[in-house]
Prior knowledge:
Blueprint: H1 3-27, E1 36-40, H2 46-54, E2 59-62, H3 65-74, E3 81-84, H4 93-99, E4 102-106, H5 109-118, E5 126-132, H6 148-156, E6 161-168, H7 176-196, E7 205-207, H8 214-219, E8 224-227, H9 229-232, H10 240-243
Parallel strand pairs: 1-2, 1-8, 2-3, 3-4, 4-5, 5-6, 6-7
Bound molecules: pyridoxal-5'-phosphate.
Amino acid sequence: MTNMAHDINMARNITDVRERLAAAARAAGRAPTDITLLAVSKTQDADAIRRAHAQGLRDFGENYAQEALDKMAALRDLDIRWHFIGPIQSNKTQAIATHFHWVHSIDRLKVARRLSSQRPAHLPPLEVCLQINIDGEASKAGVAADDAEALAVAVAALPNLRLRGLMTLPAPRNDWQGQRAPFFHLAQLLATLRSRQPALTDLDTLSMGMSDDLEAAVAEGATLVRIGTAIFGERPPKTLENLS
Ligand SMILES: *Cc1c(COP(=O)(O)O)cnc(C)c1O
């Protein structure tokens, strides 16, 4: 495909996603401007990110630290807020603390401590969310809902992190009620945390909803949706290289 054809496809995809978000917000009696569209650019090259940026997107999500650093270097001229949304390996915390604005996938205090101590002094605090394993899946990352409050209190006490809220990646479901249930649960968890821990004043973020379930997430109060496929198209299958 030519670059121009790429541009037209991407512009149409982004318009479609914005319309879906606006319709979902209206249906829920919410303002579309209250919901941040995070473009998930894992496996996409720097050029694709540049084209999405040209359509007005400013928040991009990456799952693999090394892959992200290469793209950041190529896109240094753009004003992008980079969000880390993947599993965090201990040997990658330094790079993540140095180069990202947000981290959505904190699920262990040990990793949070490393990120805080490795955050460069000249940068503002790293904005973070706790990843919650909302369906209690054995295979999935995230802290158990029952352990979220203790982790939140400990993370909020770290000097160079700013705890903003909760993130989840539920098991896929095809029906509307089924899709809403885990998002309802996450929203309740945040509401409970806010009322039990009034000292945690920055809790304003529910990072939930992807290409297939963004409407259900917005209906339950998502403030940030993480959209990959619906913007960039299908991803190539995972390879050993992009898993590292
Ligand atoms: C890949 C990914 C997404 C985007 O998923 P799509 O279905 O492509 O929209 C969102 N969140 C996380 C954590 C991801 O890994």
